[in-house]
Amino acid sequence: xxxxTDMSSSSLLILLLCAPIMGQIPVPLNATVGGSVLIPCSxxxxxxxxxxxxxxxxxxxxxLFHWDKSGETQPVADEYRNRCQVFNNDFSSGNISIRLxxxxxxxxxxxxWANVDFYDEQEKVFKQLKHxxxxxxxxxxAYQDLNLTxxxxxxxxxxxxxxxxxxxxxxxxGQNKSSGEQLKLKxxxxxxxxxxxKKTFSVTSTVSVKELQSVTCLVYNPHSNQSIENTTVIDAPxxxxxxxxxxxxVSIGVVAAILLLLFVCFLYRRRQESxxxxxxxxxEEDSRL
Length: 289
What we know:
Helix content is 20%, strand content 40%. It is α+β, with helices and mostly antiparallel strands.
């Protein structure tokens, strides 16, 4: 079976080996919205000893998957239907790992575990392994389209990003205009909005940039430890206004030059027409001579 997962082979091996030892301590697993995550589980029994096993969501009676040697299975919860996959060919080694596909924000912080009923060959009795391979998901989605704008009138900067999960940490830094020192900016006003269906977040943060030469906004995702940032240079007070006035002045000058050129051309043409009109008309008799 092909493993479609972001986990490295070494990480998977460690988790498989440690799962039975960790017992009731949930193994944290990173998952990305829209992606897949492998929930590893390796048991000290083989497939011939296993009578049945199932994967369940902790704190509820929702089943992700159920397998019974007799062929009788229990129905899984609707939210996990057609999303889970096991690796039948690996049952012989006691590997009952499960892969959860199409990860959503709703899967964040959920814990899953497996229950197993097997036959103990030595004691000749059926036994159960409960709450095996507990794993908790930590879901994330990357923030996108970071936009940083400056309001020269209010001496403020506003940073926006969207499509991420969970709520991010927004960090501001700025370069002091006089000393050139890089400063951590405080007192930023930050707000979040959650999409009604996707449950991802948009973030907007505003901070004062008075006496700053440049400003940087960094949006940090605490689950994935990834961040995006943007930096912009701040105009000195009045620079933008003077630049606009300069642009207007240049435009007026160009228009004036064009109008002057058209006026000169007009006068020249009038003069030509005037000269042509003042030439004497030849007498018909003179023309016959």
